[in-house]
Amino acid sequence: MKIRRFEEKDAAEVSALIATTLRTSNIKDYSVEYIENDIKVLQPQNILERASWMHFYVVCEDERIVGCGAIGPFWGKTDESSLFTIFVLPEYQGRGIGRKIIQTLEEDEYFLRAKRTEIPASITAVPFYRKMGYEYKNGIAAPDDEGLLRLEKFRSTN
After folding, report:
1. pLDDT in tens, 69-86
2. Rounded to an integer, what distance in angstroms lies between the CA atom of residue 108 and that of residue 114?
């Protein structure tokens, strides 16, 4: 497995990976309508747009993209960042790929400059992010009106 920065040619494959993962892994926590709505806003052109302002990474096994993740500024702030679009193909989950994505994102300059990093997490992904040291923002452990839970991690500046 190799992790590298996203390239424009990856957009369609990343979009397909996200759709497969949402339809397979997240379907237990969300309606088909919710999942299909997410897929509509994560088409290749949307992935390219995101990659233009985030640091986007992909995990490859040989030439196949099996995971992805991104980090960017939190609403334009320089001392806060946010993780986005973290997905691992269902058949590759449980192999440490998600952990490798988080480690890579936490070595990125956007993470290192931030005092706080937030994740708008799916219900499905919360147990994973909690294992990675992210806690409920303001102690709120219920989905918001977007169906997401806000998790965060504070970085020690010592």
Report:
1. 999 999 888 899 999 999
2. 10
